[in-house]
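Any chance you could type out a protein's amino acid sequence plus the matching backbone structure tokens because I've never seen that pairing?

——
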Amino acid sequence: MSLSPLTPRAKPSGPLSGLSRFMGGFRWAFMPLGLLALIAVGVHAAADTLDDRLLSLVDLADAAFDKWVGASSVTEGLVDLVSLEQRTVIARALALVWELSVDLVLALPALGYRESRASAEQEPWRKYLQQDTRPTWRQLFLRSLRKPTTVRWTRPLATGAVVLAGACAVARLVQGSVYLSWRELLGEQAADVAARGLALGALVGILASLGWRAVLRNLQHADTASQENIHSRLQALSYGLAGSALAVPLALAAALDASPLLSFLR
């Protein structure tokens, strides 16, 4: 009995595989945009939870101003200078400026995300692109421990919090849409179970496909910035401090108020 030589396995063919390969060629574009969008959604969800707190701060500032101008007969007419509606507009404007500022700090680095999965033999066009030689998770983590800086610790952790909030926002949208669409068809109880299940699936899928990549990209960006711009302990603390001071409170709001993980299980 003779043995025939092994033949290489043929690549899958057909319209769907061709479409998949065609769309895969644009991964370099839609992956960074997907990371940016997820971070922006999480930042927006966190900023929404701070509207009332900002309004309270504006009210306190207005009360202090009224007390100051009311102490003199010359300026007492300025006591009612800012109305409740104006204070609300000021609080919303502050929230918007804060949100956009944190978007610049956390979301823009996502546009620099690159990956290389296939070899040049599988996809010949890749040999014309610069290969990604950035450090791995382990290398970045060890470097953060050995040479800690403000940006190396705050930016990835803040990104993780807003990414979780963004994934929860999308999952809540899926849950509400499915429940309202299937309630009459399946009944309230069955629709609720199906909605929660699909919401959890969406949450896990978003975090598995985009969430960890967003954190990794910000860790890479913070590591590169630290390597290039920080040369002393004082710089390690002060570099990027303003951006981190804006991002950390919003990240805390994202983790504590905008990430209702248990709501998908109850």
